[in-house]
Amino acid sequence: MNASEVRPAGPAESEPQSGVPTAALSVPGDIAVGYLVLGAVIAGAAVLLTAVVRERRRPKAEPVPPGRRSAAFTDTLRSADFRWVFIGRFPQILAPFLAALLVGAIGYDGPYVTAALITLLGAAAVIPVTSVR
């Protein structure tokens, strides 16, 4: 059985498809060529978008001294909304770097074990929560 004979279960024929079904349907005989064609279409759309859409040039701004930059950042941390957004997104920013360190130190099992432990700790931390304001 080759790729052209396999029809993945999924949306009806009239619905838009993506991924493997699109690659398989664009070139039925060879899924690798299908992915190549799909990638070329996406790359062509990206080139067309960057060629058509242009940004307006803004006047060059004067560089901000590091002291004023850090003061502006700490000033925004006073806002409760920004503080919660920053605290929520900061781990997402650090995660790829920590995963790379874990893979280098422990191997590929490190991130999975660490994620499992953090998940269990998070689940245990919310057990006492009975209500929110």
Can you put this structure into words, describing what you see?
The chain is mainly alpha-helical. The protein has two domains: 54 residues, no CATH class; 61 residues, no CATH class. Helices cover 63% and strands 0% of the residues. Helix 1 packs across helix 2. The protein is extended. It starts with 19 loop residues before the first helix and ends in a 7-residue tail after the last helix. 2% of the residues are buried.
Brief description of this entry?
The chain has 133 residues and is an all-alpha fold. 63% of the residues lie in helices and 0% in strands.
Task: Describe this protein with a few key phrases.
mainly alpha; 133 residues; 2 domains
Helix-strand blueprint:
Elements: H1 20-26, H2 31-52, H3 66-76, H4 80-105, H5 109-126
Helix pairs in contact: 1-2
Which series of helices and strands comes N to C?
A: HHHHH
- Supply Rg: 25 Å
Put simply, the count of helices is 5
How far apart lie the N and C ends?
A: 59 Å
Largest sheet: none
